[in-house]
Design goal:
Elements: E1 8-17, E2 20-30, E3 35-39, H1 46-54, E4 61-66, E5 69-70, E6 81-84, H2 96-100, H3 111-124, H4 140-152, E7 158-162, H5 170-187, E8 190-195, H6 198-204, E9 207-212, E10 215-220, H7 222-227, H8 232-237, E11 242-252, E12 255-260, E13 264-269, E14 281-286, E15 292-294, E16 303-313, E17 317-324, E18 331-336, E19 349-353, E20 360-362
Parallel strand pairs: 3-8, 3-9, 6-7, 7-8
Antiparallel strand pairs: 1-2, 1-4, 4-5, 9-10, 11-12, 11-14, 12-13, 14-20, 15-19, 16-17, 16-19, 17-18
Helix pairs in contact: 3-4
């Protein structure tokens, strides 16, 4: 982020469609040069919020400002934003260059200046030399690049991206995630991405706002969001997390002493209760990659006993469902596949190493 002063500010924003409450008391700041993501399940309000910033929707109450200017009554085409839609909205009867330069038709640029800006925009997205191609002959990834070039050629302060990678296959999608990160750094403008893909948001974003039912449940940098989710709802949505019942033995000073089902005794810090204080009976979460199967060495840390209940081999990783002793529901852990490391069979008794620092407690 290049500035401490917000480029986009929303305060107490609500949006109604009749009786349907689409956005509920949304307040947030997005900063210049930031790659910001709105993440959540379908119907949570993230696209409505993006369209509100774009000016395609009016707020029912609250305020929205961009660059310090209140956007109330400001039409979409008068805002310093541009949008890349999920469908790309490429005109199939036009060439690539004509698509990219479409927004310059009514500008005061000369024909030569328009041509130069189109060429620069195509180079920027890796499509140099594609200007004369027919748009309908492009692949999905190339169409996405054309849509990006068409949006960026107008040099907006904010580029709004509505699930732009959802139509691409997995390999191309992963490639374009890296390309978008590179492009955002190159042009230096603010990107606001809407996505339902947790991995995509974690990879691409400087900060992520997780939304449920029209509200922002948590707004954090990716690492903090993943390691310290503020509620069980956020923890369940971001990646994979195992949940185990626990009892608070003592709650004094800066530490909590817990008895965790299947794991046993644990002492955790206050920062491991990101949703607030816990007491009595609670739940703890632990990520699959923070646990390990102990094939031979018992290890230095705490150990739990269990039985392999399911094995899923992914090539680079193997995911195990382990039934810990005394816990009816299996937990999931992941192991990197390495030369000489065996893949255990279902029914094998095993020991699980874990670290109390990986636990997150929820009331």
């Amino acid at each position: 982020m290049s500035s401490d002063k917000a480029l986009i500010s929303l305060r107490d924003v609500d949006k109604f469609y009749g009786d349907y409450h689409a956005l509920r008391d949304v307040s947030l700041d997005i900063f210049p040069g930031e790659f910001f993501s709105l993440l959540g399940p379908s119907g949570c309000g993230k696209t409505t919020l993006l369209r509100t910033i774009a000016g395609f929707e009016d707020v029912s109450s609250g305020t929205l400002s961009i660059g310090g200017q209140d956007m109330a009554g400001v039409a979409a085409n008068r805002r310093p934003t541009n949008m890349v839609f999920q469908s790309y909205a490429i005109f199939p009867h036009l060439t690539v260059a004509e698509n990219v330069g479409f927004g310059l038709r009514r500008s005061n640029y000369s024909r030569g200046e328009r041509h130069a800006r189109v060429s620069d925009a195509l180079e920027m997205v890796g499509l140099g030399g594609y200007g004369k191609r027919a748009a309908h002959a492009l692949s999905g990834g190339q169409r996405q690049r054309v849509a990006l070039a068409r949006a960026l050629i107008l040099k907006p302060k904010v580029l709004l991206l509505d699930e732009p990678l959802s139509a691409l296959d997995k390999k191309l999608r992963e490639q374009m995630q890296v390309e978008l990160i590179r492009l955002q750094r190159q042009v230096g403008i603010t990107f606001v991405l809407v996505t339902h893909d947790q991995e995509e948001a974690l990879i691409m974003s400087d900060r992520i706002a997780v939304m449920f039912e029209g509200r922002i449940a948590q707004l954090e940098e990716p690492e903090a969001l993943y390691q310290r989710p503020g509620s069980r709802q956020v923890a369940e949505f971001i990646g994979v997390m195992n949940f185990l019942g626990a009892h608070v033995i003592s709650n004094e000073g800066n530490a909590l002493e817990l008895d965790v089902a299947g794991l046993g005794h644990a002492v955790i810090g206050r920062d491991q209760c990101p949703g607030g204080p816990v007491s009595g009976m609670c739940h703890v979460g632990i990520r699959p990659e923070t646990m390990t199967l102990l094939f031979e060495d018992r290890g230095d840390g705490p150990v739990a006993d269990g039985v392999v209940d399911e094995v899923v081999y992914y090539g680079d990783m193997t995911y195990y469902d382990i039934k810990l002793d005394g816990v009816p529901k299996p937990i999931t852990l992941s192991m990197k596949n390495m030369i000489g490391r065996p893949v255990l069979d279902i029914g094998t008794r095993t020991k699980v190493g874990w670290d109390p620092r990986a636990l997150v407690a929820f009331s």
